[in-house]
Design brief:
Strand order of the largest sheet: 1-4-5-2-3
Strand content: 15-25%
Number of helices: 5
Shape: rod-shaped
Length: about 180
Amino acid sequence: MILRSEILNISSFTNDDRAFIEPHNDIISTALVVIGFVIFTAIVSSTYIAFDENSYALENYRHAALIANDIVGYKEIQGSRIDVISADELDEIATPIRDDKKHIMFFQRYSGNIDFSVDVSTNDAQYHWTIDRYEGNSSQKDIIAASAPVVIELGNNARCVPGTLTVKVRKNKWI
């Protein structure tokens, strides 16, 4: 029979040789589990970050493509035919802005939350127009772009050249 004084005696725990003690195996196995969990967490978080960036790029590419197709059919910049864009109209709304009212109307059709600019150029790179919502906003960071082929009417309807309309959507600061 065990006496009550032996139960409360702490030295009996350290001097008792009847128990089987594994020498430090629990520390090594715990460390391996923690290291494995940290590596698993790092892999999952990097996968999520890559997925988030790719989904952002895909979503904004769709926005840019929709805006580009909408601008191609925008009646205010059409030339003598509905399938051409007038260089004279581009001159008025491109940077530097000649007609503020037309420039505001051009961007008013789209949400103010989408920060984008439009580049129109001829395929021979002889002519180039940049239409930006805010003058001097030329941030080149985190841009998603979509292009559409266009025909640009230079001066009169007898001189039409092929070109490209590119919409560049910039990442908002609050995203």
